[in-house]
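Tokens help. One example:
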Amino acid sequence: PLSKTFRDQEVTQIISMIQAGDSCALIGIGSAGKSNLLRFLQRPEILEDRLGPEWERYLLVYVDGNKLIENSAWGLWELMLHQTTLALEERGGAAIELINALNALYEKVIQAETRDFAVRYLDRALHQVRRRLNLRLVFLLDEFDGLYGRLPAASFSALRALRDEHKYQLCYLVATRQEWRHLRQEPAVTEAFEELVSPQTVWLGPYAEPDAREMLERLAVRHGKPLDGATQRAILKETGGHPGLLRAAYRTAIERPSSLNRSLRSSSRVLDEVRRIWHSLPAEEQRVVGALAAGPNDTSPIGPVIARLRDKGLVEELAPAKYALFAKLFGDCIVQLGL
């Protein structure tokens, strides 16, 4: 399992917000490990370590957008209720009567004649969980990009209303690849929900070196093929600690160990990861990244874009107004792919 210090800075930020009852946004480029972090937060030993004796009063409900039956408001309410019930079952200690009550509400959600009232049944379920178990609910909404662009305005108002109904006993952590303004061009539609979540934004960039080393060690154990020290150091430097690139570079190193520099730049695994990162960026950021791929540049006229790329961990400042990409391998592959 991941060590307790995994993503220490980001976890500290998130736990602080959860304790305050504040919702927040988690934004990370493609393959940055958002899902990994959200699942890590659910681990009982992590909650106990971070929250102390109060940890048992928190119920973290992981809602994976990939599990939606349909991309709609009903699909979201159905999944939130389903995952809340699962979280209680996995937690143990919940009264069987409460589980049965939630299952009865779920049956109403999936019936054709009552599905339009799904958000009402979800609301009732949350009230029962809070009243009977005195729990603070935290919804971890993962892979939210696609749904965010499709939900009607009433759904965002309903999410906000659910939180307002339960005050600081319910909050959301919403994970996306891009800032919300790039996912939806109608700010009035989402305003009520965004003002709840966006002011508290956690940016998820590449791993710090200890986490990157730990990932390589986990990969070595899983595949039964450890790397020598020189190869590890080369991979850490080449990938800049990006989780997806680390994974691809490790697989490349054990499959094609000779001429690592050349192997990484011709690896389909690495190139696929570079494409994934590239396509997780809006056009204005792609333009700046493409320019930086040719080498460090003075980009002071486009400071706001650079600021966002720094938040995402994609660029570093070499000198005042002079920036470079976080990893040379990333830039070399962008040039090679003609992106």
Remarks:
- The chain has a mean pLDDT of 94.
- The longest strand covers residues 58-64.
- The longest helix spans residues 73-91.
- Residues 85 and 102 are 7 Å apart (CA to CA).
